Amino acid sequence: MNSRNKKKIWIDLDNSPHVLFFKPVIDELKKRNFTVVITARDCFQVIGLADMYKLHYKKIGTHFGKNKFMKVLGLLVRALQLMPFALKERPALALSHGSRAQALVANILFMNSIIAYDYEFSKTLFCTKPRWFLAPELLVNCGDHRRNVLLYPGIKEDVYVPFFKPDNSLRQELGVKENEILISIRPPATEAHYHNPESEPIFEGIINTFAKNELVRMVVLPRGNNQKEMIKEKWADLISNKKLILPQKVFDGLNLIWASDLVISGGGTMNREAAALHVPVYSIFRGKLGAVDRFLSQEGRLVLIETVDDIKKIDISKRNQSGNYATKTDSIDAVINHVISIVEPQAAIVSEIETVAN
Length: 358
Fold this sequence. Notes:
The protein is α/β, with parallel strands linked by helices.
């Protein structure tokens, strides 16, 4: 693979949050005359979000479920599916936010690769270990022993949240009145390897508790079809009277968060997006708490709900939406510079000299 295109970067969208993370990264790389080729896994809301953001991608692979054997099988199958794409495009770098299948292909083809992560307890198999990792600086002192880690300031959401532009028509589209309290809820990731079943009764308790509040409307965002069907069956009465809303289309997650009075999530990106947007947020994640969530909790930007009894900690009230959402940080610049330093080391050195000179 000596004939790789040094100006071509391959990004694999493996999960829904990766679409938002990589959208500004893709735009910035294109501004710098890089060619970006994209693959997307057909699972969760990846394809819907990629279409919403008008990304040009090739759909490859799907999700094989939470069974460990099926996960390994799915990894191998998707790697085989990705191989022809990689051989055809000959990119200089494979970049993702946790795509093990892409990393496996990159290793087989002796291709430079970066896997971004922001949860230090995520697992990396030996065969899927990338050449470099990319992570927030917060993870430096958390006991994470990965090597070849490229760091950027802030949290993952600081890379893309500053580019957000709110659409104030969303509440009206959902049929939520001005005096009503809108709660956006993301269930626990029941198919993830880090899932702790303790979060499930907390999730159910939240739905059942807030269903009794006349002013509350809940938008619930299932993580997959199985979870969606479970919710439809369990709370059919709440759905029929529009107390609980299951969106019929993919919404811009940031816009939904901004339209909400508070957010409750089973962990991960939605919690951190709400924190970045300064929207009250409560986490019902019961796996190992990562450094980023510990940081946000210590700063009072994230409240941990650890038991059903903790539900009473949640403040159900209207939010003042007139404040600022997020300001631009150095996060995306650091990410872009790391990518360029690998693909074009000389160009990165020149850019650094120019920055110092200015």
